[in-house]
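Morning!

This is the sequence you dropped in the shared folder:
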Amino acid sequence: MIAFAYDPSTNPLNNNEWSFPLLECIHILGFTLSIGTIAILDLRMLGLAFVRHPSRELAKSLAPWTLVGLVVMLISGPLIFSSDPNMYLRNISFRLKMYALLAAILYNYTLHRWAALREPAPAVGKFVAVVSLALWVSVVAGGLFIAFF
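The structure's back. Tokens below.
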């Protein structure tokens, strides 16, 4: 296990009553935007929503919003991590969240994007959407359980 010689009390996030909760709210807004837009596309690929719109159109129109959410999340997340890196590195939930996040981002910009833009056979699109939703739910669940482990 990696441990840093780091004193969390020196981090500005830990010295102000509002900075850490505010940063967490920004982080939650970022992943709500990114995961929300991905979920909209997944629901379309499952045939449960926006069925009048081709998934190709939705993918193209939602892509900038997904990217903005990911950027916000990928900036705010490391800042939150900096508040106590040793605690996060020892936390199994955090480590699982990071693996799930890496897998979800890679999946989103490869197979998921391919399926959304090419509209393959319905069974393939549904499978891709279910895997996408499972990966993103894993990311969120990992984040929620950090407080318990």
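Headline: The mean pLDDT is 92.

More detail when I'm at my desk.
O.
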